[in-house]
Amino acid sequence: MKCQSCGFENPTGSAFCEECGTSLQPACPVCGSEIRPGARFCRSCGANLGEAIAAQPVAAAPAAQTGVPPIGTSV
User: Fold this and answer.
1) What backbone torsions phi and psi does residue 51 show, to the nearest 5 degrees?
2) pLDDT digits (tens, 9 = 90+) for 19-50
């Protein structure tokens, strides 16, 4: 089982990474509760795990320039 944090390959069935100590149990992306592998819904908050994973935010694009020159410059 590969650690998502450090990439260390741990023995199957490990609960924590032997290299960095990170929990190897998957967590709900909505509430953070541990979920069992293959679960479709979180038992704590009821989140649809397929939809919750697909809906995770992606880094926003930089804001567009407004065309206003910086203060102190002439137009």
Assistant:
1) -75, -40
2) 999 989 888 999 999 998 889 999 999 999 98
Contact 38, 51 (CB under 8 A): no
Residues 23, 29, 32, 37, Cα dihedral to 10°: -50
Residue 6, CB half-sphere, CA atoms under 13 Å: how many?
12
Q: Which residues does residue 16 pair with via DSSP β-bridges, in sequence order?
A: 23
Q: Which tokens hold the place of 9?
A: 């390959």
Domain coordinates of the chain in residue numbers? 1-54
Q: What is the pLDDT of residues 57-69, one digit of tens each?
A: 444 444 555 666 6
Task: Please name which of 32, 33, 38, 13 lies closest in space to residue 24, comparing C-alpha atoms.
Answer: 13
Q: What is the DSSP letter of 16?
A: B
Q: Name the token pair of 46.
A: 């009821």
